Amino acid sequence: MFVEGAGSAEDLVADRAIKEYAFSRDAQWRMINLSENATYLVEDPGTGTGGILRVHREGYHDAQAIESELDWLDALHEENIVDASKVIRTADGRRIVTTEVSGRTRHAVLFETMGGLEPDEAGICANDFHTLGAVTARLHSHSKRWRKPAGFARFSWDWTNTLGEAPRWGRWQDAVGIGTNEIATLEPAVELIHRRLERYGQGPDRFGLVHADLRLANLLVDADQVNVIDFDDCGFGWFLYDFGTAVSFIEHDSALPRWQEAWLSGYRTVAELSDEDEDMLATFVMLRRMLLVAWMGSHSHSQESRTKSSSYAAGTCELATRYLDSDGSSLERTDFAR
């Protein structure tokens, strides 16, 4: 039993939300992850049911934006595009539970538990990225042709809202480990990212609704079944930004060129990519890396920030130097140093 005042605001939201579903009084829940949102595993021995409850971070999405995410998930299911998270409705048919905690509006959504395990980051192989590339292409192809319902509203991952005047995850300049020397290295790289994105443009074949966090950690693989989870960051951005997200936190690995080739190979089994598209991949990796610098600075509670932020700035400067040396076309080492 949850006692108000004994846990976090997220715990209180979770406790209230679970009561809205058709669980028995024996239902139990526990937090399994705290990152952008708080995620809880729900198990009900009384009914043999359960799910994954996502308690949304305060102020990140309003109810309309969350409903829009769920609209896309419904469409993906109906058209059999990918195996993605399925929403469990409340006892009275709602997809979202909304409650007030300390005078603030909070939202929660319950999803069915999906089978499979995420690929082990310590043992990533090229085939993992081939699979991810094909999944990404299926999502992009659907996004380009899907007629969105009236009222569909998701935020944008354009320049203004990434590294521009209104950065969604905060200013990279204010992040942990960023000082005068780091800024001197990173600012030219950010300027080059901006120039290349402006030249690339935001035509409908290049910019649209994307998952925006489509990395291996958000795939659950069970034999031949590949389940896609965590559409919480989905919004309007460059399609190839999804490759930048695919290598989040591992952009520095010397295997990046092999992973990129495998991702491209998988993607091209479903949809075409031009040489110009391929030439932009390093830019989207660097864009994502800079966003993650900012994200860890504004999400000090996250596991990634606690374990990686101390060295992440230095690694980002090394990548930025490679990026600048190649005029934005590559992040590969040129000295073969290890």
Automatic annotation (TrEMBL):
Belongs to the pseudomonas-type ThrB family. It comes from Rhodococcus erythropolis (Arthrobacter picolinophilus). Pfam families: APH. One of its GO terms (molecular function) is homoserine kinase activity. The gene is orfD. This is Aminoglycoside phosphotransferase. One of its GO terms (biological process) is threonine biosynthetic process. InterPro entries: Aminoglycoside_PTrfase (IPR002575), Kinase-like_dom_sf (IPR011009), Prot_kinase_dom (IPR000719), Pseudomonas-type_ThrB (IPR050249). It comes from the Bacteria.
